[in-house]
């Protein structure tokens, strides 16, 4: 079990040793001819010696040298992942993630929660219900996704991700597509589930098929795409909807809603409505866009403008 404890910076025992040592040193350095005082001074010297040895043996750390019992990188990052998980409102599983670059700098953290704008109080948290639409699984953004989306660097390529739970297949896709290079996990408690087996298969092969929306978000060429519009061929499923909401895309224009009757599509709409994301069907002005390469007059397109002359 990983335990987070408050670090103690003031060591009273070490402070007391130094005070006693200083006092006995002072006593030992004074000269006197009175036998009682001489006796006390000798005692002072003995105590001085005794405490000096004690200090050398037990107290070199913290007073004279650097601390040695500091938190190692691995425990530090995993603790941050656990700490993030503590923000989760999921009643059964609190999952946290922490992304770290090759300089051991934390570039992002995340935990499992409802998409932005979808109220924690109104969304379902049940694991089972008559309809999957009434379970949390359709809506919760996983810790890994939130960590990737909330990064404070341009990208997370080459980074490591520390996670409380081994990533599911949906998160595996995100982790692979964002070019994270290493996964450090704490628990593999769902190792027998198809989601985890699929995840491991993808990590082994790293040749995966991802939804177009996720690829478009992950391959963006700017730091943020908040406020952007997204054009898609097919209305996004619930997994892509989470991504779109978390990236703060503001408008969605789709061509086909062919999966309109699926629970995934219904869940997407519930989330978009709650998050205030507009969506509309594409109403094109033209029926088709044709690029006829043969009709291009290369003579015209390759003509350079006339060279300016000096007057
Ligand atoms: O890779 C993962 C897998 C799961 N989560 C989140 C999603 C849910 O909120 C919980 C799982 O709930 P259970 O009650 O244990 O089924 O964990 C995640 O963030 N990342």
TrEMBL record:
InterPro entries: APOBEC/CMP_deaminase_Zn-bd, CMP_dCMP_dom, Cytidine_deaminase-like, dCMP_deaminase-rel, Deoxycytidylate_deaminase_dom. It catalyses: dCMP + H2O + H(+) = dUMP + NH4(+). PANTHER family: DEOXYCYTIDYLATE DEAMINASE, DEOXYCYTIDYLATE DEAMINASE-RELATED. This is Probable deoxycytidylate deaminase. Belongs to the cytidine and deoxycytidylate deaminase family. It is an enzyme of class 3 (hydrolase). The chain crosses the membrane at residues 12-34, 40-58. Supplies the nucleotide substrate for thymidylate synthetase. Residues 72-210 form the CMP/dCMP-type deaminase domain. Pfam families: dCMP_cyt_deam_1. One of its GO terms (cellular component) is cytoplasm. Its cofactor is Zn(2+).
